[in-house]
Design goal:
Extracellular Endonuclease, Chain A; 8-stranded mixed β-sheet; two-stranded antiparallel sheet; 27% helix; RNA endonuclease activity; signal; mitochondrion
């Protein structure tokens, strides 16, 4: 073999540029280099002997070609192309898509500057963080000051669009901090969301996540939008989505939520994990969370994201719906919850009585918590009205 190889190498000669036209690419043959050894390959094509030699130690690019150019055993040596220097490529800078990860008081996100919505939003909640006096009535939706205005959604994009401003990291998860809650109203944390979905099923999912803090010390949640392909009448799949406002804010077809929970920091129990994808449409109370559970790998495939990459999902976690209930609250309990929020935010006695009247029309009896809240609010508003009357007489 080596004798034959040597004789072939001796037959190799360089040809002038005039001979390049003689190259017949049908005789082109590549040879790959593995490890630190040479790989020699020879084959006979008609009367041509082809030899490929590769040497990574001496050649910048790992390919060296010898191409036959005549029937007399002459070869053309084609040197490898030199790569463009990185310093030259980036002399005036590479394209940038903004800061990859933006961090806030209790959430972080990756923002899609083209669609003007977040790609993902991660938050950490605990029992402590869901309790406190922070009040969403003091918060306003506004553009994220850290995002250039040309890439930011604005409130006018949503006005009259038929879509609500849907939180990915909810305000209710941050009652412990006025600043943390206010930051959830940045439009970088918002997507166009179906009104009934936002106020209904998605809200119930958020409530379930907060409920988890009663049983788990730490809960991490990643939420975001998806734009999934739809199959048309012709059987072909297409990705299409509506945009709203002057900023062309992208309306997602679906929303996802990935939940990771830890029993305690000293517990030997495995983490629990669940991934869920819901359509951006109204979802009735007859539907429960497990109906929308998906394999984490499937969500990663369609989203292009790897969730909780430092967790070995093959052995370090259990299915959250096997360990916990994954049960969302029912219609009656949810109605009482919404009524309590309305009672809390009522600013006049007339509004307060209207809220309670709407509850009676549903046939649902107020529970003890709601009645106490109602009485307290009533006393507060009565005192406020009396004070305003005294100030009016004094004036």
């Amino acid at each position: 073999m080596w004798a034959r190889l040597t004789s072939q190498i001796l037959n190799v000669s360089l040809v002038s540029s005039m001979d390049v036209s003689l190259v017949d690419m049908s005789y082109f043959f590549k040879c790959f280099f593995f490890g630190l050894k040479y790989v020699f390959s020879s084959t006979q094509i008609e009367s041509y002997s082809i030899l490929c030699i590769e040497n990574l130690r001496n050649i910048p690019l790992p390919l060296l070609f010898l191409i036959p150019v005549s029937s007399e055993g002459h070869f053309l040596f084609v040197p490898p192309l030199e790569p463009v220097e990185e310093s030259l490529l980036e002399q005036y800078g590479f394209p940038v898509a903004g800061t990859e990860t933006r961090c806030y008081t209790n959430h972080a996100l990756s923002y899609d500057q083209a669609k003007r919505v977040p790609r993902w939003v991660i938050e950490h909640i605990s029992k402590h963080k869901t309790l406190g006096n922070a009040d969403r009535r003091h918060c306003k939706f506004r553009p994220d000051p850290s995002i250039p205005l040309m890439f930011s959604a604005v409130n006018e994009d949503y006005l009259g669009s038929g879509w609500s401003r849907g939180h990915m990291a909810p305000a209710g998860d941050n009652k412990y901090s006025t600043q943390a809650m206010a930051e959830t109203f940045y439009l970088s944390n918002i997507v166009p969301q179906n009104y009934k979905n936002n106020a209904g099923f998605w809200n119930r999912m958020e409530m379930y996540c907060r409920e988890l803090t009663e049983r788990f010390e730490d809960v991490w949640i990643v939420s975001g939008p998806l734009t999934l392909p739809q199959t048309g009448d012709d059987g072909k799949k297409r990705v299409t989505y509506q945009v709203i406002g002057q900023g062309d804010v992208a309306v997602p077809s679906h929303l996802y939520k990935v939940i990771l929970a830890r029993r305690s920091r000293i517990s030997s129990e495995p983490l629990v994990l669940g991934a869920f994808v819901v359509p951006n449409d109204p979802i009735g109370f007859s539907h429960q969370l497990p109906e929308f559970q998906v394999h984490i790998e499937d969500l990663e495939k369609i989203s292009g994201l790897v969730f909780f990459p430092q967790v070995d999902k093959t052995k370090d976690v259990k299915n959250i719906c096997d360990v916990d209930t994954c049960k969302l609250i029912g219609f009656d309990e949810f109605t009482l919850y919404i009524t309590a929020r309305k009672v809390h935010s009522a600013r006049t006695l007339h509004r307060l009585e209207k809220v309670m009247s709407e509850l009676r029309e549903t046939g649902i009896e107020p529970d003890e918590y709601l009645m106490k809240l109602y009485k307290k609010k009533e006393e507060e508003l009565v005192q406020q009205k009396q004070m305003e009357a005294r100030e009016g007489r004094a004036g």
